[in-house]
């Protein structure tokens, strides 16, 4: 179904904004992306598995097979890719399909009734629809939630990110095995975990530590102390200590989420929020970017049913109805996953490890609720995994709109 071609302004050129730009341009809409940064900075690995390990010795707790299982079961492979590389792929595609991207564009005012945005230099951009994809500290969100400042909730933990050159790992047999194996490993322990995997065909080892810390939310990555890293992890698996010894530098980022919003759509129905601006979540299920891309695909399918701009508000309500509950279930799951991974050693941790290592129950013995995980490792849970990874945003949106014909105004 091909609807009216609309003029759309997207604020924010992150993963959510670029994914939305691509999906909308592919439907033929006129899309302008406004990005505050002065420039946009610029591969993937098919992992065989994700293994959760004990923090102090690296003993395997449980392993989730990924390749070729994910493609066989869900139709698409599971990728490991650096966030910057994914952003570069999206940016290239956005330009390829004809998206207009304006950098150094600071939004100072949002008129949700028009809708329009005014930049610091006085330039005004008007559109049929304004999309807020400007992150956890969204400026556009103020035009949607007008009665208060939305609460940004810092997590107790920061992410400490680094990239280790693969060549530095080749002289040690244990480290060589890590860089040469297309697999993700996650050491889980008291008040922290470490996620690590090779990227760019083994040229780099992505190494992310999560443990207590604090920096201002949304602040650009600041340098973390390598001495602190060594002290923090000196009693962990000796492999971890070897890896930290190779770290060239480490950047610190505050994990955070936002309160659950009652609406993602402005009063006029002409401003809508996607990605972190509407459902920023902690990274403990690695689904933040995935939810942003699902938002983008759903939004494009909804707008493809619009034949007149007057229909946009109703379709934005349908977009929200399709997306909100799923995103907030993932948000809750991510937060809960952090709590499960970061248990102190003791009876609760022992029960967690025992349950993670158990084979799945027969389906008839499992809970009816699709969002209820029987296995503490949600990646392996036989009900949660297909609910999370088996979701096709385009198919689900088309089905929803077909079953809700009142959502589409007669013209």
Automatic annotation (TrEMBL):
Q: Where is the composition biased (Polar residues)?
A: 364-378
Q: Indicate whether Flavoprotein appears among the record's keywords.
A: yes
Q: Which domain of life is it from?
A: Eukaryota
Residue segments, region Disordered: 340-382
- Output the Gene3D superfamilies linked to this UniProt entry: FAD/NAD(P)-binding domain
Spell out the InterPro entries in the cross-references. FAD-bd, FAD-dep_Monooxygenase_BioMet, FAD/NAD-bd_sf
Which keywords, in A-to-Z order, does the entry hold? FAD, Flavoprotein, Monooxygenase, Oxidoreductase
The entry's family comment says:
Belongs to the paxM FAD-dependent monooxygenase family.
Q: Which PANTHER family match?
A: MONOOXYGENASE, PUTATIVE (AFU_ORTHOLOGUE AFUA_2G01950)-RELATED
**Protein name per Swiss-Prot or TrEMBL:** FAD-binding domain-containing protein
What organism is recorded for this protein? Penicillium daleae
